[in-house]
Amino acid sequence: MQQQITPEQGQNRINDQIEELKGNTLQEEQEEIGGGEQGIWYRFEQRVYKFLNIQQSHHSLEELRQMNRFELLCLQQLASSDYTCEVQRNLCDTEFNLWITTAYMNQGSLNMDCLFNNNQINDRLSLETISIICKRLINILNYFHNDCIFHLDVKPDNILLHEEYQFYYSKENIQQEYTIESGLQMLREQLSNEQIQMYDIKPDYLNLQYILSRYKIEQPNEIIRITNLRFPLIEVHQLIYWIEKWLRFQNRSQFNPQNIYVKKGIKICFCDFGLARKFNRQDIDRPIFEYGFYKTPYQILGGIVQQQQQIEAWKIARQEDLFRLGITLCYLLNTNQHIQFTDIRFDLQNQQILLNFLQQTYNEQNFNLRKISIEDQEKLLQYKSFINQLSSQQEVIQNQFGTQNNPIYHFLNMIIEMLSFSFTPSNYFYVNQENQELPLNHIKHVKGICKILENLQRV
C-alpha cells in the first residue's frame, strides 16, 4: 500500500533527489533528455531517472504514483526479456513511487523529426533497416502480449536504440553440449583461475557492459570467444548471471561454453509503460483507453459500431498496440523520405468516401457520421489515406519486381494490416522467426547525423 503524501511533499522529495544527483555527477554527465505530462527524464552518468511531472499533469498525484508503481512492476516482470530498458530497482523510489531509474540507451529514440529537411540519401534509414526494425518490434510486442502486458503508448519517442556488447552463440563445430547447470559450472572454471567461491550477486547491466568492454571489438561483425579472457571472481559471477539469463531467454536447455562469443550490436527496446494495462483473458467488456500520442479507430468508433459483437478486451488492446506501431512505421517511412504521406483535404467528397469506407468496413449501412467530431473524421481520413498510399507503393513494387519473396512488398503489407480499422488483430502478426540483425553501422550513422542536426536546430 502506498504511503500518503501531498503534492508539495512529493515535489520537494523530487527536487532534493535531483539536487543530490547533480552534486554527485560531473556536469557533462547530466542532462534533461525529455519530458511529458507523466514524467520528466534526466540522465545522470549512464542512468536515466524518470521523475513524476507533478506540476504539469492533469492526473492527480495518486494517479501518477499508481502509474509509476505499475510501470515498475511491468519492467520487473519483463526484466528477463531484453526488450525493455534495464530497470535499476535499487535506485527507484519504491517508498513513494516518485521516480523510476533505468539504464541509459545511448542511441536515443526513433524520433527523427530532424531528418525532414535533410536530403542526403545516405543519412537516412534504408527501407531494409526499417523493415528489420518493424519485424523486431512485432516480436517484442508479441512477447509482451503473451505475458498479457499491453503498452498502449507505442510511438517513436518510446522506442529506444542502444549500442551494446551482446552475447552470441555459434552453432558451428558443436561436438558436445551440456545442460545449463553443468555448462555454467564449466564456464565458471574456464573464466577464472581462482578458487570458486559463491557471492551474493547484485546484477547490474552497466557493470556487465563495463566487463565486456575489455574485448575492444572494432568491427560490427567481429565476435570473440568469451573464454579467451580471464576475470576476477566477482566479475565471473556477474557474467554467469547474465549468460544464464540470456540462455534461458534463448530457450536453450543445453550449450557448450566454448561456443559463447561476445560482439557489438544494436538493442531496440520499449520504455515508458505509464499507460500500460493487463487484461484477464476472459474479459469481454470493451475497455476505455487513455488517448496517448495516437488516437486510434477503436477509440473513435469503439462505442459506436459493432456494439452487439463481443470481443475479448486483450484482443482489442493488442490491436491498439499494433495500430500505433503501424503509424510509427509510417512516420519512419515519411521522415526517411521513402513515402511522402500527404495531408488530406477535408471536404464533402472525402467525407462521403469515409462514410462509404466505414459502412463497408463495419457492415453497418445506417452509420451516422454526425456521431463523430469533424476533428476525428479528419483523423480517420488521414489513416485511410496512409493505407491508400501504402497500397499504391505496393503496386509500384509489384509491377517492377513482382511479389514472390519480395521482402519490401510484404513489409508494406504488414503495415497495411496493422492500420486496418478492425478492432482485433490479424494472425499475420505472429511472425515466428529469428530476429534479423539490426545493422549497427547504418543505425549509428543515421543517429549521429540526427544528433548533429538537433544541435544545429538548438543554436
UniProtKB/TrEMBL annotation:
InterPro entries: Prot_kinase_dom, Ser/Thr_kinase_AS, Ser_Thr_kinase. Residues 27-459 form the Protein kinase domain. One of its GO terms (molecular function) is protein serine/threonine kinase activity. It comes from the Eukaryota. Signal peptide: none annotated. GO terms for cellular component: cytoplasm. PROSITE patterns: PROTEIN_KINASE_DOM, PROTEIN_KINASE_ST. PANTHER family: MITOGEN-ACTIVATED KINASE KINASE KINASE, SPORULATION-SPECIFIC PROTEIN 1. This is Protein kinase domain-containing protein. It comes from Paramecium primaurelia.
